[in-house]
Amino acid sequence: MALLAYNVLALIERCVERAHTSAAGAAPKVSLYHLVLQIRGGYEGLLIALPPEHWTACGATDPPALAARLLSLARRIDPGRVTVGRRKPKDPAAEPKRASRGHVATARILNSQTP
C-alpha cells in the first residue's frame, strides 16, 4: 500500500514539476511533504463539497488523455506552496561558543577526600 501511495505521489510531483517548468528549463523542486499537505486539505474540502458518487472515473480513459488531464490539473497548483523550502546558510559567527567550565568528576572529589 505504501509503495502504491508513493508512486502516486511521485507521479503528481513530476506532473507539477513539468507543468511549471519555465522557458529556461528550470523546474521547481517539489516537496512531497508540502504536496501531501495540499492534497489532504483539498481532499477534505472535496469530500465536504461533493459526495464520492458524483466523482468521474478516470480508469476508462486512455493514457495520453489521462496524462493531459493530470498536467492540466497540475497547472492549477501554486508551485510556491509545494516547493522545497530553501534556507540561507547559517552565519558561522552566530553560533555560540561553549565556555570551558573545568569539569571535575565526582568520583575524583570523593577519592581525594578519603584518608
Description:
Residues 81-115 are annotated as: Disordered. The chain is an all-alpha fold. It has a domain at 2-81. Helices cover 52% and strands 0% of the residues. It has helices at residues 2-19, 32-49, 63-74, 79-82, 106-113. The mean pLDDT is 81.
Topology:
Elements: H1 2-19, H2 32-49, H3 63-74, H4 79-82, H5 106-113
Helix pairs in contact: 1-3
Region (Disordered): 81-115
Mean pLDDT: 81
Q: Structural class of the secondary elements?
A: mainly alpha
Strand percentage, roughly? under 5%
Q: Using DSSP, what is the number of strands?
A: 0
The best one-word shape is elongated
Strand count, sense and barrel status of the largest sheet are:
none
Low-pLDDT stretches are: none
Provide the gyration radius in Å. Answer: 27 Å
Total DSSP helices: 5
The helicity comes to 40-55%
- Secondary-structure element pattern, one letter each: HHHHH
Distance between the termini: 69 Å
